[in-house]
Amino acid sequence: MNGTYDSCSAVSSPSTGRRALDLMCGSWGASKCSARKWFTYMGTTEGNPYVPFQINYIEHDEPVVPAAEEQELVPLNPRVVPCSEKLDAKTPACSCVDCELSCPRPPPPSPPPQPFVIYGYDGYAVVMFVVFLVCSGLFVIGACLCQSGGNGAGATWDGEQELRPHPSAIHGDDDAESGYFERLGAKTE
């Protein structure tokens, strides 16, 4: 019973746009239906005009010997065909709309790439640190070793007017009073 219910529980009814068990499970509907409720409704003549006579489904897994008879009753145990398989050569399997097992399976996700590591540290952080050190070192070396050809007074830029010297540079004691960064800035000009 459960295998048949599981195979048919997701089948939709195109005329109503709902699941077929909404029509075939009585007042319970598809959301509250179970295998036992479905078979009970399908065998009950009361409230179901499509059942010509009462059918009592008895769920057993082992043979039963009734008291009045000498022959044992073997429960019907046919193979339940999953909804994703054909019943026979003439009957197709259920579609993906009615049966989740019929839907194509996506390929499994690829494993995540290995992280970029240099000597056990994050590779990107190591590369950025090295680039920072190299650029900073080049800047400091360039600022200290490359001196301009004078004190900057009278220097021109692209042949335009002459740059005016700093007012304190007129007295000549500019270098003594200026700080390290002012001298570094003057050297980079």
From TrEMBL:
One GO CC term on file: plasma membrane
Domain of life, per lineage: Eukaryota
Keyword Transmembrane helix on entry: yes
Any Pfam family matching the protein: NPC1_N
Name of this protein: Niemann-Pick C1-like protein 1
Gene Ontology biological process terms from the UniProt entry: cholesterol homeostasis; intestinal cholesterol absorption; sterol transport
One function term, GO molecular function aspect: cholesterol binding
